[in-house]
Amino acid sequence: MNFQWYPGHMTKTRRMMQEDIKLIDLVIEVLDARVPMGSRNPDIDNLAANKSRLILLNKADLADERATLRWSEYFKSKGFFVVTINARNKTGFKAIQSEIQKACKAKIERDLKRGIKNRPIRAMVVGIPNVGKSTFINSYAGKACTKTGNRPGVTKGKQWIRLNRSVELLDTPGILWPKFEDQTIGLRLALIGSIKDEILNIEDLALELIKFLRKNYQGILAERYEVDEEGTDAELLKQIGLKRNCIQKGNEINYLKAANLILEEFRNGKIGKITLEL
Known about the structure:
By secondary structure, the chain is of the alpha/beta class. The protein folds into two domains: 8-171, 3-Layer(aba) Sandwich (Rossmann fold), CATH 3.40.50.300; 201-267, Conserved Hypothetical Protein Ylqf, Chain: A, domain 2, CATH 1.10.1580. 40% of the residues lie in helices and 13% in strands. It is built from eleven helices and eight strands. The strands form two sheets. A six-stranded mixed β-sheet has the order 3-2-1-4-6-5, sandwiched between helices. Strands 7-8 form a two-stranded antiparallel ribbon. Helix 8 (202-216) packs across helix 11. The longest helix is centred in the C-terminal third of the chain and has 15 residues, at 202-216. The radius of gyration is 20 Å and the shape is elongated. The two termini are 22 Å apart. The model is unreliable at 151-156 (pLDDT under 50).
């Protein structure tokens, strides 16, 4: 499978972010904890050069906890401030404000030396599509400031949000990068829903997920669907289709329905806590 999705609005968004970065004290990068490295847009490092950086490992409730801990330590070793969160139920949110203050300590001290008091920290929230930026902002602000949805491309334009007296957030649309050099990254982003399903082969995508789970989380599919994990990936998809009554006319297996089912249950965490990058 070949993965690529870079609609025109992403180019416009990137230019907008380049213009706004001079107003920013802190870049908050929201990542999907199931794909911590793959869900990092490599362009952000250049865009945010010389800015304080905070990484939020979101959707941690869906990810392998041991893997998330290792990824958190990895990013900290690279000089980032890191908080592991679940934006939907605000898990981890208590640590965010203190990490923002730590990340912007030098900026706050500079302001005090200049006699500037209580100037709010301006933070740009960035990330690829569907990692939960808008859900994080709404949960953190305690009100619906931005549109949310479990699909890419919901946020269309930038928006300033005043959180409190000390922090202002600039929400930006999710952007990918023009070309995936490694198609494995494209595959992982497709699996978590950061690439539009409409341009993907869903059956092939489900087979790739089955292959990964059989290799790295042996027995997890057998437990969820009461199937035998022996045989080929296609045979396992057929078994899942039978178990979940994915049947079409002629008493044939509806493979597309079975594929959509396993993808949706992976994305919702029903299969288990799974990290795609170990």
